[in-house]
Write a structure and sequence with these properties.
Number of helices: 6
Radius of gyration: 22 Å
Keywords: Signal
Distance between the termini: 74 Å
Strand order of the largest sheet: 1-16-15-13-12
Shape: globular
CATH architecture: 6 Propeller
CATH topology: Neuraminidase
Number of domains: 1
Structural class: mainly beta
Protein name: Extracellular protein
Organism: Pediococcus ethanolidurans
Largest sheet: 5 strands, mixed
C-alpha cells in the first residue's frame, strides 16, 4: 500500500506540474513558447529609404473617439433595414463601400457587441470577427452563405442579424420573436467562441492560406488598448474551437536595437507574414517574415512609406488577385504591390480617402478581388463597389 501511495502521489504531482506547464500562457492548455533569439534580422539603418508617395495622410478627424461618426441609418435605428455607404472622396484609386451585413451591436450571451476590432475571411462564405469588451476578447464565426440565403444582405431585411441576437438575449421580454423560424436559422449561422484575456488590441486577426485550420493575431503583454510594443506575441487560434491554442512570445529586436512594432498582421498567398510600425510623425515601416513552430523571424523592408494613410494604421490586408498589401487607417487606405516592396516608385502607391468619418476596423479580399470593410458605429461588414480596388 505504501508503494502504491507513493506512486499515486507522484502521479498527482506530475499531473499538477503538467497542468502548470500547459497553462503558463494566458489560456489553459495553450502551448506557449518564449523566443530567446532576436525576432528581427539585422539591417543597416543608413541604407533605409522612403518612397515619396503622394500625401494623402488624413489628419484631424480621429484624434478622439468622439470625432468618429455614426452611420446615418444607425443614428435613426439600431435595427437598420437599408444599407449605408462609405463614399470615395479623393485619391488615385476610386472605390466606395456599401453595407453588406449588419452585425450584432446589443448585449447578447452576456457580451457587449458594439466593439469589433478586426476580422478575417477564409472565403466569401465565411467571416471571423474579433470583438472586445473590457479585458475580454472573443471570436465569432459567421456563415455568410447561410445568412445570404436567409436574405440578410437584401435591403428591407438587413435587420435580421441584429434582431435575432437581440430577441435571443431578451427572450423573456420577447418570447414570440425569439421563436421566429428565420431568427432561429440566423442564430444557427453564428458561432460564438469562448472569452479570453491578454490579447493586445485585437486588431490583427488574420488568415494564412497555407494553414487552413487556424487564424492568427498579434498581441502584447500590455493593456488591451495599446497599439505598439517592443514586447509582443503571435497567437494561433484553432478554427474549430475559436480558441487560442498556441502563443509565441518574442521581442521585436535586432542587433541594431529594439523597434516598437504595430499590432497589425497580414499574410500573402505564399504564407509570408507582414507587420507595420509607425515611424516619425507620418511615415510607416513594413516588416516581412515567417511564423515558425516555436519562433518568428522578420526582416525590415528597406524602403518605408513616406506618407501613411493616417495617424493610426488600424489594419493590414492582402489582395491575392492584385498581389497588393493594404494599409488601412480611419477613412483612408493605401496599397502597394508586394512584388515591388523595397523598390517602390511613387506611381506604385495607390491611395483612397473617404468622406464617412467612420472608424475602419479591418479590410479583407476574396479570391475574385471583392473587397470587404469592417466598420464601427454600428458594427457592419461593407462590400466594395469594384473588384479592382
Amino acid at each position: 500500500m505504501q508503494k502504491k501511495s507513493k506512486w499515486v502521489s507522484r502521479l498527482i504531482c506530475g499531473l499538477a506540474v503538467g497542468l502548470m506547464t500547459l497553462s503558463v500562457g494566458d489560456f489553459a492548455f495553450a502551448a506557449t513558447y518564449t523566443q530567446k533569439g532576436n525576432a528581427l534580422s539585422s539591417y543597416s539603418a543608413s541604407k533605409f529609404k522612403y518612397v515619396s508617395n503622394s500625401n494623402y495622410y488624413l489628419t484631424g478627424n480621429f484624434t478622439t473617439k468622439k470625432q468618429y461618426s455614426y452611420a446615418a441609418g444607425y443614428k435613426t435605428s439600431t435595427f437598420q433595414t437599408k444599407p449605408d455607404s462609405v463614399n470615395y472622396k479623393k485619391g488615385n484609386k476610386k472605390v466606395s463601400f456599401k453595407s453588406n451585413y449588419f452585425l450584432p451591436v446589443t448585449k447578447w450571451k452576456n457580451l457587449s457587441w458594439g466593439n469589433p476590432q478586426s476580422f478575417a475571411m477564409t472565403s466569401a462564405d465565411t467571416a471571423y470577427v474579433f470583438c472586445t469588451s473590457g479585458s475580454y476578447g472573443w471570436i465569432t464565426k459567421y456563415n455568410l452563405k447561410a445568412l445570404r440565403a436567409l436574405g440578410a444582405t437584401k435591403s428591407g431585411k438587413m435587420d435580421m442579424i441584429r434582431r435575432a441576437t437581440f430577441y435571443n438575449a431578451n427572450s423573456k421580454r420577447y418570447p414570440t420573436q425569439n421563436q421566429n423560424a428565420t431568427y432561429k436559422k440566423v442564430l444557427k449561422a453564428i458561432k460564438v467562441g469562448p472569452k479570453f484575456k491578454n490579447f493586445g488590441h485585437g486588431q490583427s486577426l488574420a488568415y494564412n492560406p497555407k494553414d487552413s485550420s487556424h487564424l492568427w493575431f498579434v498581441g502584447t503583454g500590455l493593456a488591451s488598448g495599446n497599439h505598439v510594443s517592443t514586447k509582443a506575441n503571435v497567437q494561433r487560434v484553432k478554427i474549430s474551437t475559436l480558441k487560442p491554442d498556441k502563443k509565441i512570445n518574442f521581442r521585436f529586436k535586432s542587433k541594431s536595437g529594439y523597434i516598437a512594432g504595430g499590432l497589425n498582421l497580414a499574410f500573402d498567398k505564399s504564407g509570408n507574414a507582414y507587420l507595420d510600425s509607425k515611424t516619425g510623425s507620418r511615415s510607416l515601416k513594413l516588416f516581412k517574415g515567417k511564423i515558425y513552430t516555436k519562433s518568428v523571424k522578420f526582416s525590415l523592408v528597406m524602403q518605408g512609406i513616406k506618407y501613411a494613410p493616417g495617424p493610426r494604421t488600424q489594419s493590414l490586408a492582402y489582395n491575392k488577385k492584385r498581389n497588393r498589401l493594404y494599409m488601412i487607417a480611419d477613412d483612408s487606405v493605401i496599397s502597394v504591390p508586394v512584388s515591388k516592396l523595397g523598390k517602390l516608385k511613387k506611381s506604385d502607391v495607390q491611395a483612397t480617402q473617404f468622406s464617412a468619418k467612420r472608424e475602419f476596423e479591418g479590410m479583407q479580399f476574396t479570391s475574385d478581388g471583392s473587397s470587404y470593410l469592417l466598420t464601427n458605429k454600428g458594427a457592419e461588414i461593407m462590400k466594395g463597389s469594384t473588384k479592382s480596388f
